[in-house]
Each structure stands twice: as structure tokens, then as C-alpha cells.
Amino acid sequence: MFAATRAASFAAKRSFSTSAANLSKVAVLGAAGGIGQPLSLLLKENPHVSHLALYDIVNTPGVAADLSHINTNSKVTGHTAANDGLKAALEDAHVVVIPAGVPRKPGMTRDDLFNTNASIVQTLAQAAAKHCPKAHILIISNPVNSTVPIFAEVLKKAGVFDPKRLYGVTTLDVVRASRFVSEIKNKDPKDVKITVVGGHSGVTIVPLLSQSGFEFTKEELDALTHRIQFGGDEVVQAKDGAGSATLSMAFAGARFANSVLEATVGGKKGVIEPSFVKSDLYADQGIEYFSSNVELGPNGVEKIHGLGEISDYEKDLVQKCLVDLKKNIAKGESFGQ
Ligand SMILES: NC(=O)c1ccc[n+]([C@@H]2O[C@H](COP(=O)([O-])OP(=O)(O)OC[C@H]3O[C@@H](n4cnc5c(N)ncnc54)[C@H](O)[C@@H]3O)[C@@H](O)[C@H]2O)c1
Ligand SMILES: O=C(O)C[C@H](O)C(=O)O
């Protein structure tokens, strides 16, 4: 249903989106994985993409050959580590989306992925610093609360860090929040917008349900908050060892990538998405990265929105969030340094 709606909306936009200035190369790193494949499929439908470069350590030639038969305008190329494939994928990229890395199994936290994924992200950051220092970098690889600071430290070391162009993708949390609230309020999710702030794991995910326009009982509030914070665990448990969310993440990642493209090359104004970015909101408490609604413009992050008025219940959630977030960020920064 999404694909049909999305295709229709993209098709409508295509009529005014064909000039070269509106088109860009998008690279997906980790493109042959559970997220990478459906995400690349959705990006193949995006009218702002002129070239989709798919990089993974395995299987990208097949994924690229398959996607390249879809009759949308973009060219698709597949790259592996052979023949300097990472360089070829990254050169001239305007947007780089990164779902490379291992997913959770039941019983694991996202932080348990750190040991494996930190070095993967570090390697990809070193390559991005060299081959596409001006690209907009969208990080999906977990733990996002630490992988974004790792990426930033590598870019800083290379002297190319632009905080306006590095984004942790937290869109899945708002997608889930919208869906879960719509289920209990019997609404169409398209009319249910829930702001979610903080980070992307457990108690660092803070839904601001008091701003939703709906009334909740205390029981509903507790249940919804918990479900939004631990929605990822539901999928990990249901997949029973076969990974974590891939299809809903591809949907969320494609939505965020499209927003970045619309704001940076599509000329669209007032594009607002939540994202885990370098932020001043809690910098006075030593927390340099935070997810909140972010206004995107031609150069990326244009304005970081504050939290606005929040309830005492949410103030409590934010305090708990900040404790974990600070540790997750520090761990990423020290690894990246
Ligand atoms: N931000 C979010 O909301 C969110 C949501 C879901 C999953 N994730 C995270 O996304 C990551 C990927 O999840 P998945 O389900 O697609 O996993 P997956 O194992 O299915 O796919 C990961 C892919 O990364 C590739 N890869 C490994 N090392 C690489 C390297 N050095 N360079 C390029 N590619 C490399 C693998 O070959 C594989 O194809 C995980 O860390 C997961 O926790 C984040
Ligand atoms: O839960 C996970 O490990 C994957 C992802 O971060 C999610 O929220 O689904």
C-alpha cells in the first residue's frame, strides 16, 4: 500500500523534478542486507535520485542487476570491496545512507552491537571523509546513539565535519509512535503525528504524547510509552534470531532520505523530520547529540526545534534518557577519537 501511495506521489512530483539540478547520486552502504535491499528498492522509485550506488561487502552485483531492470530514471551500480568499490560508490554522492552492520538477536541490547558495528562505521566514515566530504550522511547502523558520534569524530579528525550534514536516523520511532497511537485511537495514522525526542534505544526514546492532541489514561500512557521505547524488541523477538526490523526501517529510512533530498535538491521549504544530530539543546549538560524535530534546508540541518511544552511525566522520561544518552555518546566519541 505504501509503495503504491509513494509511487503515486513520486510520479506526481516527477513532472517537475527532472532537471539535472534536482537530481543526485545516492549511495547505500550495506545495500545487500535486510534493510539495504528494500531501502534501495524504495530509493529506486525516488525521482530525485539519478544514480543509486549500492555498496556491500557481498552480493551487491546481484542486487544492483535486479534493481536496474526497474523502469525508473535512475542508473544503478553495484560495488563490493574489489576494485576500490567503496570509493566508486562514494565519489560524487550527495546522500549516503548507511545500514551496514549486524542486527540484534533476542536478549541483546543495541549497545551489545557496539563492538562489531563501531569498527564498520569507523571504516565507512574514513572512506566518506576522503571520497565525499560534502555528502549528507544518514546513519541507520546501531547503536545510533554511539555510531553518530563515532562518525563525527572521524570526520573531525579529517577536518571535514559539518554538523548540518550528519544525521542519525530515528524516523522509525516516530513511524511506530504514529501507528501505535492510531491503533488505540482508531484513526488513520496519516493524521497522527507524534513527536519523539532523545536517542534511539530503550529509555533514550522519549515520545511526547502530551503534544499529540489526544487524551490518554495513565495506563494508556504507560503502555504506549513502553511500546514506543521497546518497539524494536517486539520485532527482534518475533523474528526469533533472524534479525531485527528491516521492512519498517526501510520505509522509515526512505522517508528520511526523501526529506533530505526534497530539502537539499528539491527546493522544498519547511521540511521537518526528527533526527539525532549535533544539538545545543542539552549541550550545557555535556550531551552534544540529541534527536528532536529538525528543519531541513538546502544545506541540511537549518534549525533544531526545542521540545516545547512537555508534561511532568515527560520531564521525568527526559531525565532518564539523558543519563543513558550521555554514556552512549561518550562511548562513541572515545572510540572515534
Ligand atoms: N536506526 C534504526 O532505527 C534501525 C532500525 C533497524 C535496524 N537498524 C540497524 O541497522 C543495521 C543493519 O540491519 P540489517 O537488518 O539490515 O542487518 P543485515 O545483517 O541484514 O545487513 C547488514 C549488511 O551490512 C553489510 N556489511 C557488514 N559490514 C559491512 C561493511 N564493512 N561495509 C559495508 N557493508 C557491510 C552486511 O554484509 C549486510 O549485508 C543493524 O545495525 C541494525 O541494528 C537500525
Ligand atoms: O531494535 C533493533 O535493534 C533495531 C532497530 O533499532 C529498531 O528500533 O527496530
**Proportion of residues in helical segments:** 40-55%
Order of helices and strands: HEHEHEHEHEHEHEEHHHEEEH
Q: Based on helices, strands and strand pairing, what is the structural class?
A: alpha/beta
Q: What is bound: which ligands?
A: nicotinamide-adenine-dinucleotide, (2S)-2-hydroxybutanedioic acid
> How many extended strands?
11
**Name of the CATH architecture of the largest domain:** Alpha-Beta Complex
Lateral arrangement of strands in the main beta sheet? 3-2-1-4-5-6
Strand content: 15-25%
User: What Rg is obtained from the alpha carbons, in whole angstroms?
Assistant: 19 Å
Q: According to CATH, what is the topology of the largest domain?
A: L-2-Hydroxyisocaproate Dehydrogenase, Chain A, domain 2
Oligomeric state of the chains present here: single chain
The largest β sheet comes out as: 6 strands, parallel
Shape: globular
Provide a count of the helices.
11
Plain-language structure description:
This protein has 337 residues and is α/β, with parallel strands linked by helices. It folds into two domains: 161 residues, NAD(P)-binding Rossmann-like Domain (Rossmann fold), CATH 3.40.50; 166 residues, L-2-Hydroxyisocaproate Dehydrogenase, Chain A, domain 2. Helices cover 44% and strands 17% of the residues. The chain has eleven helices and eleven strands. The longest helix has 25 residues. The N terminus is likely disordered. Bound molecules: nicotinamide-adenine-dinucleotide and (2S)-2-hydroxybutanedioic acid (LMR). Nicotinamide-adenine-dinucleotide binds next to helix 5. Nicotinamide-adenine-dinucleotide (NAD) binds next to helix 5. It catalyses: (S)-malate + NAD(+) = oxaloacetate + NADH + H(+). Keywords: NAD, Oxidoreductase, Tricarboxylic acid cycle. Homodimer. This is Malate dehydrogenase.
